Amino acid sequence: MLGAGGHARVLQEVLSEVGFELHGFVAPRDTESQLGAKADGEEVAWLGADDNLLEFAPADHLLVNGLGSAGNLAIRTSVYAKFRKAGFKFLQVEASTSMVSRTASLHEGVQVLHGAIVHVDALINENTIINTGAIVEHGVVVGANCHVSVGSVICGDVSIGNSTHIGAGATVIQGIEIGENCIIGAGAVVIRDVPDNHMAIGVPAQNRPIGVK
């Protein structure tokens, strides 16, 4: 596991429910682990800082990206890219209570958490989180390194670019195109397209370039 915070703890439980147990985790030395004990009561072993993973054989170790986003996807994205370049593979995670259509496509490292729904012909690209209770409807395309947050609703045939954060409880109506590196605010209702590098907040959501107040 990369990381040991709240998102990593959720993933630990999801993985345990489907028969996986963590070998260990990497994180900076001063990180306070939120991970629970293993089935045998032992704590999950700290394996050192991230770079310690480079001493392991990629063919023998499957990684899980336990870093959340909190509205900033850059660290999660860079860590994923670094270890993919080093030859490691990332586990695709589907919670036992999630529903993923047999015609949906999930790429490497995608995480679909409890109660989330991914409907027919949806495409979720690598290293993206579909968080608790989120709904991704038919024909939606979600780019790489995105976070579709808790309770958000992405209606049919929406397109979401890479490295975009969809805030908790947001709704994106059908057919909308959202660009890359965007932030959709919590609770926003998106009824018009959002260009690259823009934020959309409010009901209905208003677009503005990121960094402009």
**Proportion in helices:** 10-25%
- Name of the CATH architecture of the largest domain: 3 Solenoid
**Oligomer type:** single chain
Whole-angstrom Rg: 17 Å
Shape: globular
Low-confidence stretches: none
Could you report the average pLDDT, rounded to the nearest whole number?
94
Distance between the termini: 37 Å
CATH superfamily of the largest domain: Hexapeptide repeat proteins
Strand order of the largest sheet: 5-8-11-14-17-20-22-23
Structural domain tally: 2
For the record, what CATH class of the largest domain applies? Mainly Beta
Count of beta strands: 23
Query: What name does CATH use for the topology of the largest domain?
Result: UDP N-Acetylglucosamine Acyltransferase, domain 1
Structural class of the secondary structure composition?
A: alpha/beta
Q: What is the string of SSEs from the N terminus onward? A: HEEEHEEEEEEEEEEEEEEEEEEEE
Strand content: 15-25%
Counted by DSSP, the helix tally is 2
For the biggest sheet, the summary is: 8 strands, mixed
Reconstruct the topology from this structure.
Layout: H1 6-17, E1 24-25, E2 45-46, E3 62-63, H2 74-85, E4 89-90, E5 93-94, E6 99-100, E7 105-106, E8 111-112, E9 117-118, E10 123-124, E11 129-130, E12 135-136, E13 141-142, E14 147-148, E15 153-154, E16 159-160, E17 165-166, E18 171-172, E19 177-178, E20 183-184, E21 189-190, E22 198-201, E23 206-209
Parallel strand pairs: 1-2, 3-4, 5-8, 6-9, 7-10, 8-11, 9-12, 10-13, 11-14, 12-15, 13-16, 14-17, 15-18, 16-19, 17-20, 18-21, 20-22
Antiparallel strand pairs: 22-23
